[in-house]
Automatic annotation (TrEMBL):
<keyword id="KW-0004">4Fe-4S</keyword>
<feature type="binding site">
    <location>
        <position position="36"/>
    </location>
    <ligand>
        <name>[4Fe-4S] cluster 2</name>
    </ligand>
</feature>
<feature type="binding site">
    <location>
        <position position="41"/>
    </location>
    <ligand>
        <name>[4Fe-4S] cluster 2</name>
    </ligand>
</feature>
<keyword id="KW-0408">Iron</keyword>
<dbReference type="GO" id="GO:0042542">
    <property type="term" value="P:response to hydrogen peroxide"/>
</dbReference>
<keyword id="KW-0533">Nickel</keyword>
<feature type="binding site">
    <location>
        <position position="55"/>
    </location>
    <ligand>
        <name>[4Fe-4S] cluster 2</name>
    </ligand>
</feature>
<dbReference type="GO" id="GO:0050418">
    <property type="term" value="F:hydroxylamine reductase activity"/>
</dbReference>
<dbReference type="InterPro" id="IPR016101">
    <property type="entry name" value="CO_DH_a-bundle"/>
</dbReference>
<feature type="binding site">
    <location>
        <position position="32"/>
    </location>
    <ligand>
        <name>[4Fe-4S] cluster 1</name>
    </ligand>
</feature>
<feature type="binding site">
    <location>
        <position position="33"/>
    </location>
    <ligand>
        <name>[4Fe-4S] cluster 2</name>
    </ligand>
</feature>
<dbReference type="InterPro" id="IPR010047">
    <property type="entry name" value="CODH"/>
</dbReference>
<feature type="binding site">
    <location>
        <position position="283"/>
    </location>
    <ligand>
        <name>[Ni-4Fe-4S] cluster</name>
    </ligand>
</feature>
<comment type="similarity">
    <text>Belongs to the Ni-containing carbon monoxide dehydrogenase family.</text>
</comment>
<dbReference type="InterPro" id="IPR011254">
    <property type="entry name" value="Prismane-like_sf"/>
</dbReference>
<keyword id="KW-0411">Iron-sulfur</keyword>
<feature type="binding site">
    <location>
        <position position="321"/>
    </location>
    <ligand>
        <name>[Ni-4Fe-4S] cluster</name>
    </ligand>
</feature>
Length: 611
C-alpha cells in the first residue's frame, strides 16, 4: 500500500517522518520550554551552554513540566471521552436520548454494588444514582479520593496513594492542577511535579477511562468472544465502504446500526453497490469489533493507506489519533472525510455534527452521504489488498471469567503450577519511528513462546489480530504449558481486551487476581509494554500502570533523557513506593526479555522454589 501511495502521488506519514529528520534534539530530551514569553528557553545537555532557563528553571524542572503536561493531555483526552459517555448514560435515564438504552443490566448492577448503590430497586433508579456518582467524580470539590477509584482499586494500593498524597480527588481537577503547576513560576520541584502527574494519570485510569469502559458496557453490551477479521482486505470492492475511525462507541455503534437498515441497503443497491461494509479503525474499531464482530480495517498507521485503496466512500471520524493529513489523501481519491465532533474538525472535511439526541437520524445521514459518494469512485485508482486475518476477540474481564468456567481459580492454578508463567499486557500505538506492527507482534510472540498469557488493547490488538495471534490455532506458537491451557479453554494465547480506555479492564483483572491471592498487584508475575507508543494518552496509561504497581517497558523513548534526576525517578525510585517502574528498550527482543526477567523474579518471590 505504501508503494501504491507513492505511485498515486500520495504523501504518507512515513514521507513526512523522513522529511522531519533530524528531529530536534532539545525536544527529544525534553529540554526546551516555552511556558512563558521570556522564552523559549533550552538547556544545553552537554553542559557547555545554558544550564537554566531565563527564569532559572533547571533541566529537572523543565523535563518534569513537559512530561506531566503530556500526561495531562492524555488524561484529559481519555476522561473527556469518559465524561461524554457518562452524560449520554445520564440522558438515557432522563429519556432524552431515545436511540440509546441500558443493554446490560447485570453490568450496571455490578457497578452499582461496587459503588455501594442499593440495587434492590427499579433499574432506572439505580442508573440515576450511578450516573450521578460518576459525574460527581469529574466535579466534586472535597479532597477525598474519587468514588470510582475508591470502589475499584485494591485497598492496599489506595493506601500507597494516600501515603504519597496522589489519590485523585476529581478527574478534571488533577488535569487543571497540572496546567496550574506548570505555569511559569509555580511548581519547580521535579518530584512534586511528577507526583501530580501520577495523580492525574490515576484519575484517568481509575476514573475517566474506567467510567468510559463501564458505561459503554452498560449501554452497548459487555463484550463476549466473537469471531471477526482485520486488515485492509475487509473492504469490499463492490460494496459501499464506510470506515469509522476514532474512539467513542456512542457514534460508531449508531453507524453500524444505520448501515444494517433495509432502507440504506436498498439505497446502496440503487447506486449499483451490492451492500454496505462498515469497518472500524483504531479504537472505535476496537469498540465495535469487541461487541459485534464488526471487522477492523487497520490500526493507526493504516489510516492514510485505507483511503489509498480508492474504495473508501466515507471515512467517518470522531476524535483522537485522526491524522490531519486525511483530507489531503482523500483529495487524491473520491473519499469523503466526515468529521462529527465539534471538538475535532479538519479543514477540507465535511462536517456532520453528531448529537446523541438525534443519533439514528444523523447516523443515517452519514451513511447516506457515503452511499451517494459511491458512484464517484475513480475505477483506475481502486486497489484493495487481499490481506485479512480471522480471529476471536471480545475478552472483557467478565467473558474471561466465563471462559474459565465462572471463576478465576483455574487461571490462578495454572499460574501457580507454572503452566502459565505470568501475564503480560501489551498496549498502545504505532509510531513511524519503528517498523509498523513489528514491536507489537514480536514481543507478543516471544512472550507466548515462554508461557506468558498476553492480553492487550488499542493498536496492539489490531496488529496482533492481523498477524493471526487471535486465532485459537496460534496456541501452537505458545510454550507447552500455555498451549495446553489455551486448547483446554479454546482460547487464543493473546486476548483482545478492547480499546485504549479499556486498559481499565486490565487494571480490574490484575486487581482481582491480586485480591484473590491476597497480595499486592506489584507482587504478581505481571508486566506491561507499549512497544510502539506515540500518543500522550499512552503517557497517562503508562503512568497509571506504574503507579498501580506494574513494571512497564516502553519501546520508544519518552522525552525525559535531558534530566538524570527524572530518569532515575521513573526507572528506579518510584519502584520503592508503588512497586512499579518504567524501563525503555528499543528492540522487541530486549523488551520481551526485560518482561520475562521481571516475571521470573516475581514468580520466585511469590512462589519460592515453584517459581
Ligand atoms: O487510544 S493505541 S494510536 S488509536 S492512542 Fe491512538 Fe495509540 Fe492507537 Fe486508540 Ni490508543
Ligand atoms: Fe524560559 Fe522559564 Fe519561561 Fe520556561 S518558564 S520559557 S524556562 S523563562
Amino acid at each position: 500500500m505504501k508503494e501504491k501511495a507513492k505511485s498515486d502521488g500520495v504523501e504518507t506519514v512515513w514521507d513526512r517522518f523522513e522529511e522531519q529528520q533530524p528531529q530536534c534534539g532539545f525536544g527529544q530530551l525534553g529540554l526546551c520550554c516555552r511556558n512563558c514569553n521570556m522564552g523559549p528557553c533550552r538547556i544545553d545537555p552537554f553542559g557547555e551552554g545554558p544550564s537554566k532557563g531565563v527564569c532559572g528553571a533547571t533541566a529537572g524542572t523543565i523535563v518534569s513540566r513537559n512530561l506531566i503536561r503530556m500526561t495531562a493531555a492524555g488524561a484529559a483526552a481519555h476522561s473527556d471521552h469518559g465524561r461524554e459517555t457518562a452524560l449520554v448514560f445520564k440522558e438515557i435515564v432522563e429519556g432524552e436520548v431515545p436511540g440509546y438504552e441500558i443493554k446490560d443490566e447485570a453490568k450496571l448492577n455490578s457497578i452499582a454494588s461496587r459503588l455501594g448503590v442499593n440495587t434492590d430497586r427499579e433499574i432506572e433508579e439505580v442508573a440515576k444514582d450511578v450516573a450521578e456518582i460518576a459525574l460527581e467524580d469529574f466535579g466534586k470539590q472535597d479532597d477525598e479520593v474519587i468514588s470510582f477509584a475508591n470502589a475499584y482499586a485494591p485497598e492496599s494500593l489506595q493506601q500507597v496513594w494516600q501515603e504519597l498524597d496522589v489519590a485523585p480527588r476529581n478527574i478534571d481537577r488533577e488535569v487543571v492542577e497540572i496546567m496550574h503547576r506548570t505555569h511559569m513560576g509555580v511548581d519547580a520541584d521535579p518530584l512534586n511535579l511528577n507526583l501530580q502527574g501520577i495523580r492525574a494519570a490515576l484519575g484517568d485510569g481509575w476514573g475517566g477511562s474506567l467510567i468510559g469502559t463501564e458505561f459503554s458496557d452498560v449501554m452497548f453490551g459487555t463484550p463476549e468472544p466473537v469471531e471477526s477479521s482485520a486488515n485492509l482486505g475487509v473492504l469490499e470492492e463492490n460494496k459501499v465502504n464506510v470506515i469509522t475511525h476514532g474512539h467513542v462507541p456512542i457514534l460508531s455503534e449508531k453507524i453500524v446500526e444505520a448501515a444494517e437498515d433495509e432502507e440504506m441497503i436498498e439505497l446502496a443497491k440503487s447506486k449499483g453497490a451490492d451492500g454496505i461494509v462498515v469497518a472500524g479503525m483504531c479504537c472505535t474499531g476496537n469498540e465495535i469489533i469487541m461487541r459485534h464482530g464488526i471487522p477492523t480495517a487497520g490500526n493507526f498507521l493504516q489510516q492514510e493507506l485505507a483511503i489509498t485503496t480508492g474504495a473508501v466512500d466515507a471515512m467517518v471520524v470522531d476524535y483522537q489519533c485522526i491524522m490531519p493529513s486525511l483530507t489531503d489523501v482523500a483529495d487524491c481519491y473520491h473519499t469523503k472525510v466526515i468529521t462529527t465532533s465539534e471538538k475535532a474538525k479538519l479543514p477540507g472535511a465535511e462536517h456532520i455534527e453528531f448529537d446523541p439526541a438525534k443519533a439514528d437520524k444523523i447516523a443515517k445521514q452519514i451513511i447516506k452521504t457515503a452511499i451517494e459518494n459511491y458512484p464517484a469512485r475513480k475505477e483506475e485508482k481502486i486497489g484493495i489488498p487481499e490481506e485479512k486475518m480471522d480471529g476471536v476477540v471480545g475478552f472483557s474481564v467478565e467473558s474471561i471469567v466465563d471462559a474459565l468456567g465462572g471463576s478465576l481459580d483455574p487461571l490462578l492454578e495454572a499460574i501457580k503450577e507454572g503452566q502459565i508463567k505470568g501475564i503480560a499486557g501489551i498496549v498502545g500505538c504505532n509510531n513511524p519511528k519503528v517498523e509498523h506492527d513489528e514491536g507489537h507482534v514480536e514481543v507478543a510472540k516471544k512472550l507466548i513462546a515462554n508461557d506468558i498469557l498476553v492480553v492487550g488493547t488499542g493498536c496492539w490488538s489490531i496488529a496482533a489480530m492481523k498477524d493471526g495471534l487471535f486465532k485459537p490455532e496460534a496456541a501452537e506458537l505458545a510454550g507447552d504449558g500455555l498451549q495446553a491451557v489455551c486448547e483446554q479453554l479454546e482460547i487464543p494465547p493473546c486476548l483482545h481486551m478492547g480499546s485504549c480506555v479499556d486498559n481499565t479492564r486490565i487494571l480490574v483483572a490484575v486487581s482481582a487476581i491480586a485480591e484473590a491471592l491476597g497480595v499486592e498487584p506489584s507482587q504478581l508475575p505481571v508486566a506491561g509494554a507499549a512497544p510502539e507508543w506515540m500518543s500522550e494518552k499512552a503517557v497517562s496509561i503508562g503512568t497509571y500502570f506504574v503507579a498501580s504497581g506494574i513494571f512497564t517497558v516502553l519501546g520508544t523513548t519518552p522525552p525525559v533523557l535531558g534530566s538524570n534526576e527524572v530518569v532515575k525517578l521513573l526507572t528506579e525510585d518510584i519502584e520503592e513506593v508503588t512497586g512499579g517502574k518504567f524501563a525503555v528498550e528499543s528492540t522487541p527482543n530486549e523488551i520481551a526479555d526485560l518482561m520475562l526477567d521481571h516475571i521470573a523474579s516475581k514468580r520466585k518471590e511469590l512462589l519460592g522454589e515453584r517459581g
